[in-house]
Design brief:
alpha+beta; Membrane-bound Lytic Murein Transglycosylase D, Chain A; about 30% strand; 10-stranded antiparallel beta sheet; 3 domains; about 240 residues; 12 strands; single chain; Glucose Permease (Domain IIA)
């Protein structure tokens, strides 16, 4: 556990549930954790996929190419099929593929940070992946203050904006950023340029919204032209 990290920031970074992370490490009071503590990371929720489809491998297929084409990591595919590391795929072998959780059609009529070509919900956490055009502007949905701007592990370059009402908007997957910590922005402000996902090799935005340390469905979060009640609640892990 590094300096400045919290149980919440670690759970988000590894896409695992906070309660599962605490249970796996017998933690009752996360405020007592100290830098340098070793933590066991349980199997991420996104790896516990129940809805799958069968894919029959054809000549030239590899597990890596199948994972990339389906927008998942190689490790997820290995775990889902109980393949050992280094498993060599054979032509005709059946591989279980996670079924992508698509968003309802009406969601495309909403305002999004980028023009959506495709939208899907993240598996295991309340967020969405929005496919757009490479290098297009990623625009803020609200006014607010930038509290974080920079690289953030698997999400690439990320901007986090704090708004009235205790909401925090996370814009991840940017190739470059157009704002810095402390900037006050308005709806439509460019926060960065959309980059390419290293997993899918597609231009994808990872968009999440939190309030009072609880994820909010991005489709239901306040947008341009909406108002939110004043609330002083904060999200601890975002400021860790």
């Amino acid at each position: 556990m590094g300096k400045g990290e919290t149980i919440y920031s670690i759970s988000r970074a590894y896409s695992v549930n906070v309660d599962e992370l605490m249970k796996a490490n017998n933690i009752s009071d996360p405020s007592k954790l100290q830098a340098g503590s070793a933590l066991k990371i349980p199997l991420p929720v996104q790896n516990k996929v129940q809805n799958t489809s069968d894919y029959k491998a054809v000549k030239g297929d590899t597990l890596y190419s199948i994972a990339r084409n389906n927008g998942v990591t190689l490790q997820i595919l290995l775990d889902l099929n109980k393949f050992p590391s280094g498993h060599v795929l054979k032509t005709g072998e059946i591989v279980k593929i996670p079924v992508k959780e698509t968003a309802p059609a009406g969601i495309y009529s909403l305002i999004w940070p980028v023009a959506p070509k495709d939208i899907s919900y993240m598996t295991g956490q309340m967020g969405v992946v929005v496919e757009g055009e490479y290098a297009e502007s990623v625009k803020s949905l609200t006014q607010g203050k930038v509290i974080s701007a920079g690289p953030w592990r698997k999400f690439g370059r990320v901007v986090i904006v704090e708004t009235d009402g205790g909401y925090f908007y996370m814009y991840g997957g940017c190739e470059s950023l157009s704002v810095k910590v402390g900037d006050k922005i308005t709806p439509g402000t460019e926060v960065g340029k959309l980059g390419i996902s290293i997993v899918t090799e597609k231009p994808q935005l990872f968009f999440m919204v939190f309030r009072s340390d609880v994820p909010v469905d991005p489709a239901l979060a306040p947008r341009i032209g909406t108002s939110v009640e004043k609330d002083t609640s904060k999200i601890a892990f975002l400021k860790a």
